[in-house]
Amino acid sequence: MPVITNIEDLKRIYRRRVPKMFYDYAESGSWTEQTFRENTSDFDEIRLRQRVAVDMSGRSTATKMIGQDVTMPVALAPVGLTGMQCADGEIKAARAAEKFGVPFTLSTMSINSIEDVAEATTKPFWFQLYTMKDTDFLSRLIERAKAAKCSALVITLDLQILGQRHKDLKNGLSAPPKLTPATIANLMTKWSWGLGMLGAKRRNFGNIVGHATGVSDAANLGAWTAEQFDPTLDWGKIAKIKEMWGGPVILKGILDAEDAKMALQVGADAIIVSNHGGRQLDGAISSIRALPSILDAVGDEVEVHLDSGIRKGQDILKAVAMGAKGTYIGRSFVYGLGAMGEAGVTKALEVLHKEMDISMALCGRRTISDLDRTILMIPENFEGRWQ
Ligand SMILES: Cc1cc2nc3c(=O)[nH]c(=O)nc-3n(C[C@H](O)[C@H](O)[C@H](O)COP(=O)(O)O)c2cc1C
Protein backbone atom coordinates (compact mmCIF):
# COMPACT_ATOMS: atom_id res chain seq x y z
CA MET A 1 0.00 0.00 0.00
CA PRO A 2 1.53 3.36 -0.96
CA VAL A 3 2.04 5.97 1.76
CA ILE A 4 -0.58 8.65 1.17
CA THR A 5 0.42 12.06 2.45
CA ASN A 6 -1.56 14.48 0.31
CA ILE A 7 -4.56 14.84 -2.00
CA GLU A 8 -2.36 14.50 -5.12
CA ASP A 9 -1.41 10.97 -3.98
CA LEU A 10 -5.09 10.03 -3.91
CA LYS A 11 -5.59 11.56 -7.34
CA ARG A 12 -2.84 9.39 -8.84
CA ILE A 13 -4.45 6.19 -7.51
CA TYR A 14 -7.90 7.44 -8.55
CA ARG A 15 -6.70 7.96 -12.11
CA ARG A 16 -5.44 4.37 -12.32
CA ARG A 17 -8.61 2.80 -10.91
CA VAL A 18 -11.55 4.67 -12.44
CA PRO A 19 -12.67 4.57 -16.10
CA LYS A 20 -11.31 7.46 -18.16
CA MET A 21 -14.81 8.78 -18.85
CA PHE A 22 -15.46 9.42 -15.13
CA TYR A 23 -11.95 10.64 -14.34
CA ASP A 24 -12.26 13.17 -17.17
CA TYR A 25 -15.75 14.15 -15.99
CA ALA A 26 -14.35 15.20 -12.60
CA GLU A 27 -10.98 16.47 -13.74
CA SER A 28 -12.16 19.06 -16.18
CA GLY A 29 -13.43 22.59 -16.38
CA SER A 30 -15.48 24.24 -19.08
CA TRP A 31 -13.98 25.38 -22.42
CA THR A 32 -10.34 26.50 -21.97
CA GLU A 33 -10.37 25.56 -18.26
CA GLN A 34 -8.91 28.95 -17.26
CA THR A 35 -11.23 29.34 -14.28
CA PHE A 36 -10.67 25.70 -13.29
CA ARG A 37 -6.88 26.30 -13.20
CA GLU A 38 -7.07 29.67 -11.44
CA ASN A 39 -9.27 28.28 -8.66
CA THR A 40 -6.20 26.46 -7.37
CA SER A 41 -3.38 28.75 -8.51
CA ASP A 42 -5.01 31.83 -6.90
CA PHE A 43 -4.94 30.16 -3.49
CA ASP A 44 -1.16 29.89 -3.91
CA GLU A 45 -0.88 33.66 -4.43
CA ILE A 46 -1.83 34.21 -0.79
CA ARG A 47 0.92 33.55 1.75
CA LEU A 48 0.61 32.63 5.43
CA ARG A 49 2.28 34.68 8.16
CA GLN A 50 4.48 32.49 10.34
CA ARG A 51 4.44 33.24 14.07
CA VAL A 52 6.61 31.63 16.76
CA ALA A 53 6.76 31.12 20.51
CA VAL A 54 2.98 30.94 20.86
CA ASP A 55 1.51 28.17 23.04
CA MET A 56 -0.01 25.80 20.49
CA SER A 57 -1.41 23.19 22.86
CA GLY A 58 -5.14 22.44 23.13
CA ARG A 59 -5.93 23.26 19.52
CA SER A 60 -9.28 22.62 17.86
CA THR A 61 -10.61 23.02 14.33
CA ALA A 62 -14.20 22.47 15.48
CA THR A 63 -16.76 25.12 14.59
CA LYS A 64 -20.34 25.44 13.26
CA MET A 65 -21.78 25.72 9.76
CA ILE A 66 -25.38 27.04 9.69
CA GLY A 67 -25.54 26.27 13.39
CA GLN A 68 -24.53 22.63 12.98
CA ASP A 69 -21.41 21.29 14.72
CA VAL A 70 -18.54 20.36 12.39
CA THR A 71 -15.13 18.84 13.17
CA MET A 72 -13.60 21.36 10.78
CA PRO A 73 -15.11 24.05 8.54
CA VAL A 74 -15.50 21.71 5.59
CA ALA A 75 -18.50 20.01 3.96
CA LEU A 76 -18.59 17.54 1.08
CA ALA A 77 -19.86 19.42 -1.98
CA PRO A 78 -22.67 18.00 -4.10
CA VAL A 79 -21.11 15.99 -6.93
CA GLY A 80 -23.24 14.42 -9.65
CA LEU A 81 -22.55 10.81 -10.65
CA THR A 82 -20.53 10.15 -7.49
CA GLY A 83 -21.81 6.58 -7.64
CA MET A 84 -20.02 6.15 -10.96
CA GLN A 85 -16.66 7.01 -9.42
CA CYS A 86 -17.06 4.04 -7.10
CA ALA A 87 -19.93 1.60 -6.54
CA ASP A 88 -22.44 3.09 -4.08
CA GLY A 89 -20.23 6.18 -3.98
CA GLU A 90 -22.76 8.51 -2.37
CA ILE A 91 -23.43 6.05 0.46
CA LYS A 92 -19.70 5.58 1.06
CA ALA A 93 -18.92 9.30 0.97
CA ALA A 94 -21.87 10.11 3.26
CA ARG A 95 -20.73 7.49 5.78
CA ALA A 96 -17.16 8.79 5.78
CA ALA A 97 -18.41 12.36 6.27
CA GLU A 98 -20.73 11.32 9.09
CA LYS A 99 -17.96 9.48 10.94
CA PHE A 100 -15.59 12.41 10.51
CA GLY A 101 -18.18 14.92 11.67
CA VAL A 102 -18.62 17.04 8.55
CA PRO A 103 -21.77 17.56 6.43
CA PHE A 104 -22.38 15.52 3.30
CA THR A 105 -24.35 17.16 0.47
CA LEU A 106 -26.22 14.83 -1.87
CA SER A 107 -26.57 16.05 -5.46
CA THR A 108 -29.87 15.95 -7.34
CA MET A 109 -27.83 14.17 -10.05
CA SER A 110 -26.59 11.43 -7.72
CA ILE A 111 -26.61 7.72 -8.44
CA ASN A 112 -27.73 6.62 -4.95
CA SER A 113 -31.09 8.18 -4.14
CA ILE A 114 -32.04 10.41 -1.21
CA GLU A 115 -33.69 7.37 0.39
CA ASP A 116 -30.61 5.13 -0.15
CA VAL A 117 -28.37 7.62 1.66
CA ALA A 118 -30.90 8.21 4.46
CA GLU A 119 -31.12 4.47 5.03
CA ALA A 120 -27.33 4.06 5.16
CA THR A 121 -26.62 6.94 7.57
CA THR A 122 -27.75 7.93 11.04
CA LYS A 123 -27.39 11.72 10.99
CA PRO A 124 -29.07 14.24 8.70
CA PHE A 125 -27.28 15.15 5.48
CA TRP A 126 -27.83 18.13 3.14
CA PHE A 127 -29.64 17.93 -0.17
CA GLN A 128 -28.64 19.94 -3.26
CA LEU A 129 -31.42 20.99 -5.56
CA TYR A 130 -31.30 21.76 -9.25
CA THR A 131 -34.47 23.50 -10.28
CA MET A 132 -36.41 21.60 -12.93
CA LYS A 133 -39.10 22.66 -15.39
CA ASP A 134 -41.31 19.85 -14.14
CA THR A 135 -42.74 21.54 -11.04
CA ASP A 136 -44.49 18.37 -9.82
CA PHE A 137 -41.19 16.54 -9.90
CA LEU A 138 -39.49 19.48 -8.16
CA SER A 139 -42.00 19.57 -5.31
CA ARG A 140 -41.82 15.78 -4.92
CA LEU A 141 -38.03 16.02 -4.72
CA ILE A 142 -38.33 18.61 -1.95
CA GLU A 143 -40.87 16.44 -0.11
CA ARG A 144 -38.53 13.43 -0.39
CA ALA A 145 -35.65 15.47 1.07
CA LYS A 146 -37.93 16.55 3.93
CA ALA A 147 -39.07 12.97 4.53
CA ALA A 148 -35.40 11.90 4.66
CA LYS A 149 -34.86 14.59 7.34
CA CYS A 150 -32.23 16.48 5.34
CA SER A 151 -31.10 19.37 7.52
CA ALA A 152 -30.39 21.94 4.78
CA LEU A 153 -31.37 22.57 1.19
CA VAL A 154 -28.52 23.74 -1.04
CA ILE A 155 -29.98 25.42 -4.13
CA THR A 156 -27.52 25.62 -7.02
CA LEU A 157 -27.92 28.84 -9.00
CA ASP A 158 -25.10 28.66 -11.53
CA LEU A 159 -26.33 25.81 -13.70
CA GLN A 160 -29.53 26.77 -15.45
CA ILE A 161 -27.67 25.85 -18.59
CA LEU A 162 -24.66 23.55 -18.86
CA GLY A 163 -21.16 24.96 -19.51
CA GLN A 164 -19.47 22.88 -22.19
CA ARG A 165 -16.80 20.46 -21.05
CA HIS A 166 -15.12 19.18 -24.18
CA LYS A 167 -13.96 15.86 -22.73
CA ASP A 168 -17.47 14.78 -21.73
CA LEU A 169 -18.68 15.23 -25.30
CA LYS A 170 -15.68 13.42 -26.73
CA ASN A 171 -15.99 10.54 -24.24
CA GLY A 172 -19.78 10.26 -24.66
CA LEU A 173 -20.25 10.58 -20.88
CA SER A 174 -23.22 8.56 -19.63
CA ALA A 175 -24.36 6.61 -16.58
CA PRO A 176 -23.93 3.69 -16.89
CA PRO A 177 -21.22 3.96 -19.59
CA LYS A 178 -22.36 3.05 -23.10
CA LEU A 179 -20.38 0.11 -24.37
CA THR A 180 -18.42 1.33 -27.37
CA PRO A 181 -15.13 -0.29 -28.49
CA ALA A 182 -13.20 2.55 -26.79
CA THR A 183 -15.04 2.27 -23.45
CA ILE A 184 -14.84 -1.54 -23.47
CA ALA A 185 -11.06 -1.35 -24.05
CA ASN A 186 -10.72 1.12 -21.17
CA LEU A 187 -13.05 -0.79 -18.81
CA MET A 188 -10.98 -3.95 -19.30
CA THR A 189 -8.12 -2.19 -17.51
CA LYS A 190 -10.37 -1.15 -14.59
CA TRP A 191 -11.41 -4.55 -13.24
CA SER A 192 -11.71 -3.56 -9.54
CA TRP A 193 -14.08 -0.73 -10.49
CA GLY A 194 -16.08 -3.11 -12.71
CA LEU A 195 -16.35 -5.79 -10.01
CA GLY A 196 -17.60 -3.20 -7.55
CA MET A 197 -20.17 -1.93 -10.05
CA LEU A 198 -21.56 -5.43 -10.59
CA GLY A 199 -22.69 -5.38 -6.95
CA ALA A 200 -23.76 -1.72 -6.83
CA LYS A 201 -27.21 -0.84 -5.59
CA ARG A 202 -27.74 1.48 -8.59
CA ARG A 203 -26.11 2.40 -11.89
CA ASN A 204 -28.26 5.32 -13.03
CA PHE A 205 -29.72 8.53 -11.57
CA GLY A 206 -31.44 7.34 -8.40
CA ASN A 207 -33.33 10.56 -7.67
CA ILE A 208 -34.76 10.77 -11.16
CA VAL A 209 -35.28 7.41 -12.82
CA GLY A 210 -38.63 6.05 -11.71
CA HIS A 211 -39.61 9.40 -10.14
CA ALA A 212 -39.82 11.88 -13.03
CA THR A 213 -42.53 11.36 -15.61
CA GLY A 214 -41.72 11.71 -19.28
CA VAL A 215 -37.95 11.61 -18.86
CA SER A 216 -36.83 10.32 -22.21
CA ASP A 217 -33.20 9.48 -21.53
CA ALA A 218 -31.95 9.93 -17.99
CA ALA A 219 -28.77 8.03 -18.87
CA ASN A 220 -27.41 11.05 -20.70
CA LEU A 221 -26.51 13.97 -18.46
CA GLY A 222 -26.26 16.53 -21.25
CA ALA A 223 -29.63 15.64 -22.77
CA TRP A 224 -31.37 15.53 -19.39
CA THR A 225 -29.95 18.91 -18.40
CA ALA A 226 -30.89 20.60 -21.65
CA GLU A 227 -34.35 19.06 -21.46
CA GLN A 228 -35.23 19.51 -17.81
CA PHE A 229 -33.24 22.25 -16.06
CA ASP A 230 -35.25 25.42 -15.63
CA PRO A 231 -33.81 28.30 -17.69
CA THR A 232 -36.40 30.70 -16.20
CA LEU A 233 -35.11 30.43 -12.63
CA ASP A 234 -35.09 33.86 -10.95
CA TRP A 235 -35.06 35.30 -7.41
CA GLY A 236 -38.84 35.08 -7.14
CA LYS A 237 -38.75 31.35 -7.82
CA ILE A 238 -35.91 30.91 -5.33
CA ALA A 239 -38.00 32.62 -2.65
CA LYS A 240 -40.90 30.24 -3.44
CA ILE A 241 -38.65 27.18 -3.16
CA LYS A 242 -37.37 28.45 0.18
CA GLU A 243 -40.96 28.71 1.36
CA MET A 244 -41.78 25.19 0.14
CA TRP A 245 -38.75 23.82 1.98
CA GLY A 246 -39.29 25.68 5.25
CA GLY A 247 -35.83 24.87 6.66
CA PRO A 248 -32.30 26.23 6.30
CA VAL A 249 -31.41 27.23 2.74
CA ILE A 250 -27.90 27.63 1.31
CA LEU A 251 -27.59 29.39 -2.06
CA LYS A 252 -24.71 27.98 -4.12
CA GLY A 253 -22.90 29.62 -7.00
CA ILE A 254 -22.62 33.27 -5.95
CA LEU A 255 -19.63 35.07 -7.44
CA ASP A 256 -20.77 38.68 -7.42
CA ALA A 257 -21.50 41.08 -4.55
CA GLU A 258 -24.77 42.22 -6.19
CA ASP A 259 -26.03 38.63 -6.33
CA ALA A 260 -24.94 38.14 -2.72
CA LYS A 261 -27.18 41.08 -1.73
CA MET A 262 -30.09 39.49 -3.64
CA ALA A 263 -29.46 36.21 -1.80
CA LEU A 264 -29.71 38.13 1.43
CA GLN A 265 -33.04 39.62 0.37
CA VAL A 266 -34.58 36.21 -0.31
CA GLY A 267 -33.52 35.14 3.17
CA ALA A 268 -30.69 32.72 2.50
CA ASP A 269 -29.19 31.20 5.67
CA ALA A 270 -25.83 30.93 3.92
CA ILE A 271 -24.35 31.50 0.49
CA ILE A 272 -21.58 29.58 -1.23
CA VAL A 273 -19.09 31.69 -3.15
CA SER A 274 -18.51 29.27 -6.00
CA ASN A 275 -17.93 29.01 -9.73
CA HIS A 276 -18.90 25.32 -9.73
CA GLY A 277 -15.27 24.24 -9.65
CA GLY A 278 -14.59 26.07 -12.94
CA ARG A 279 -17.16 23.94 -14.75
CA GLN A 280 -19.58 26.65 -15.82
CA LEU A 281 -18.50 30.20 -16.86
CA ASP A 282 -14.96 29.89 -18.18
CA GLY A 283 -13.27 33.26 -17.69
CA ALA A 284 -15.05 33.94 -14.38
CA ILE A 285 -12.76 34.86 -11.47
CA SER A 286 -11.69 32.26 -8.94
CA SER A 287 -13.80 31.88 -5.81
CA ILE A 288 -11.01 32.93 -3.46
CA ARG A 289 -10.51 36.14 -5.46
CA ALA A 290 -14.25 36.87 -5.34
CA LEU A 291 -14.52 36.22 -1.60
CA PRO A 292 -13.32 39.56 -0.11
CA SER A 293 -15.77 41.76 -2.01
CA ILE A 294 -18.68 39.45 -1.16
CA LEU A 295 -17.69 39.42 2.50
CA ASP A 296 -17.53 43.21 2.46
CA ALA A 297 -21.02 43.36 0.95
CA VAL A 298 -22.90 40.81 3.08
CA GLY A 299 -20.44 39.13 5.48
CA ASP A 300 -22.02 40.68 8.58
CA GLU A 301 -25.53 39.62 7.65
CA VAL A 302 -25.29 36.10 6.24
CA GLU A 303 -22.95 33.15 6.61
CA VAL A 304 -20.56 33.11 3.68
CA HIS A 305 -19.08 29.78 2.58
CA LEU A 306 -16.68 29.03 -0.29
CA ASP A 307 -15.79 26.24 -2.65
CA SER A 308 -13.74 25.70 -5.82
CA GLY A 309 -10.06 24.86 -5.81
CA ILE A 310 -9.51 23.44 -2.32
CA ARG A 311 -6.82 20.76 -2.49
CA LYS A 312 -4.92 21.49 0.74
CA GLY A 313 -5.70 22.22 4.38
CA GLN A 314 -3.81 25.48 3.88
CA ASP A 315 -6.48 26.51 1.33
CA ILE A 316 -9.21 25.97 3.94
CA LEU A 317 -7.17 27.98 6.44
CA LYS A 318 -6.81 30.85 3.95
CA ALA A 319 -10.53 30.95 3.12
CA VAL A 320 -11.58 30.84 6.77
CA ALA A 321 -8.99 33.40 7.86
CA MET A 322 -10.30 35.67 5.12
CA GLY A 323 -13.77 35.40 6.65
CA ALA A 324 -15.56 32.35 5.22
CA LYS A 325 -17.52 30.42 7.86
CA GLY A 326 -17.17 27.16 5.96
CA THR A 327 -15.77 25.54 2.84
CA TYR A 328 -16.69 22.62 0.60
CA ILE A 329 -14.55 20.07 -1.20
CA GLY A 330 -15.59 18.50 -4.50
CA ARG A 331 -12.73 16.86 -6.36
CA SER A 332 -10.61 16.36 -3.24
CA PHE A 333 -13.11 13.84 -1.87
CA VAL A 334 -13.86 12.34 -5.29
CA TYR A 335 -10.16 11.46 -5.72
CA GLY A 336 -10.23 9.64 -2.39
CA LEU A 337 -13.49 7.86 -3.20
CA GLY A 338 -12.29 6.65 -6.60
CA ALA A 339 -8.94 5.59 -5.13
CA MET A 340 -10.11 3.68 -2.06
CA GLY A 341 -13.88 3.95 -1.52
CA GLU A 342 -15.07 5.05 1.92
CA ALA A 343 -11.55 4.71 3.38
CA GLY A 344 -10.29 7.05 0.66
CA VAL A 345 -12.82 9.76 1.56
CA THR A 346 -11.79 9.40 5.19
CA LYS A 347 -8.16 9.66 4.09
CA ALA A 348 -8.88 12.85 2.13
CA LEU A 349 -10.57 14.39 5.19
CA GLU A 350 -7.69 13.31 7.46
CA VAL A 351 -5.09 14.78 5.10
CA LEU A 352 -6.92 18.13 4.88
CA HIS A 353 -7.54 18.23 8.62
CA LYS A 354 -3.90 17.59 9.48
CA GLU A 355 -2.66 20.17 6.98
CA MET A 356 -5.09 22.73 8.31
CA ASP A 357 -4.44 22.02 11.98
CA ILE A 358 -0.63 22.11 11.75
CA SER A 359 -0.60 25.19 9.53
CA MET A 360 -2.97 26.97 11.92
CA ALA A 361 -0.55 26.18 14.77
CA LEU A 362 2.42 27.46 12.76
CA CYS A 363 0.51 30.70 12.24
CA GLY A 364 0.27 30.93 16.03
CA ARG A 365 -3.49 30.25 16.29
CA ARG A 366 -5.33 27.55 18.22
CA THR A 367 -8.98 27.76 17.29
CA ILE A 368 -11.16 28.74 14.36
CA SER A 369 -12.44 31.79 16.22
CA ASP A 370 -8.79 32.99 16.56
CA LEU A 371 -8.43 33.14 12.77
CA ASP A 372 -8.54 36.46 10.95
CA ARG A 373 -6.92 38.22 8.01
CA THR A 374 -3.82 39.13 10.02
CA ILE A 375 -2.43 35.63 9.42
CA LEU A 376 -2.66 36.19 5.67
CA MET A 377 -0.32 38.01 3.33
CA ILE A 378 -2.60 38.97 0.47
CA PRO A 379 -0.94 40.51 -2.60
CA GLU A 380 -1.95 44.07 -3.26
CA ASN A 381 -4.69 44.22 -5.83
CA PHE A 382 -5.51 40.52 -5.24
CA GLU A 383 -9.15 41.16 -6.12
CA GLY A 384 -8.07 42.98 -9.27
CA ARG A 385 -9.07 46.39 -10.56
CA TRP A 386 -11.46 45.34 -13.24
CA GLN A 387 -13.12 47.92 -15.48
C1 LIG B 1 -17.59 15.86 -11.08
C2 LIG B 1 -18.33 17.01 -10.49
C3 LIG B 1 -19.72 16.98 -10.45
C4 LIG B 1 -20.42 18.03 -9.87
N1 LIG B 1 -21.78 17.97 -9.76
C5 LIG B 1 -22.45 18.94 -9.11
C6 LIG B 1 -23.83 18.83 -8.87
O1 LIG B 1 -24.46 17.84 -9.22
N2 LIG B 1 -24.46 19.86 -8.23
C7 LIG B 1 -23.78 20.99 -7.82
O2 LIG B 1 -24.38 21.90 -7.27
N3 LIG B 1 -22.46 21.09 -8.01
C8 LIG B 1 -21.78 20.10 -8.63
N4 LIG B 1 -20.43 20.20 -8.79
C9 LIG B 1 -19.72 21.36 -8.24
C10 LIG B 1 -19.31 21.09 -6.78
O3 LIG B 1 -20.40 21.06 -5.92
C11 LIG B 1 -18.34 22.14 -6.28
O4 LIG B 1 -18.88 23.41 -6.49
C12 LIG B 1 -16.96 22.05 -6.94
O5 LIG B 1 -16.58 20.72 -7.11
C13 LIG B 1 -15.94 22.77 -6.09
O6 LIG B 1 -14.70 22.76 -6.71
P1 LIG B 1 -13.53 21.71 -6.38
O7 LIG B 1 -13.89 20.44 -7.09
O8 LIG B 1 -12.33 22.37 -6.94
O9 LIG B 1 -13.50 21.51 -4.88
C14 LIG B 1 -19.71 19.15 -9.36
C15 LIG B 1 -18.31 19.16 -9.40
C16 LIG B 1 -17.64 18.11 -9.96
C17 LIG B 1 -16.14 18.13 -9.95
TrEMBL record:
The active site is at 276 (proton acceptor). Glyoxylate binds at residues 25, 165, 276, 279. One of its GO terms (molecular function) is FMN binding. Pfam families: FMN_dh. FMN binds at residues 78-80, 107, 128, 130, 156, 252, 274, 307-311, 330-331. GO terms for cellular component: plasma membrane. Residues 1-381 form the FMN hydroxy acid dehydrogenase domain. Keywords: Flavoprotein, FMN, Oxidoreductase. It comes from the Bacteria. Its cofactor is FMN. Belongs to the FMN-dependent alpha-hydroxy acid dehydrogenase family. NCBIfam families: PRK11197.1. PANTHER family: 2-HYDROXYACID OXIDASE 1, S -2-HYDROXY-ACID OXIDASE-RELATED. This is Alpha-hydroxy-acid oxidizing protein. It comes from Thalassobius vesicularis. The lineage of its organism: Bacteria, Pseudomonadati, Pseudomonadota, Alphaproteobacteria, Rhodobacterales.
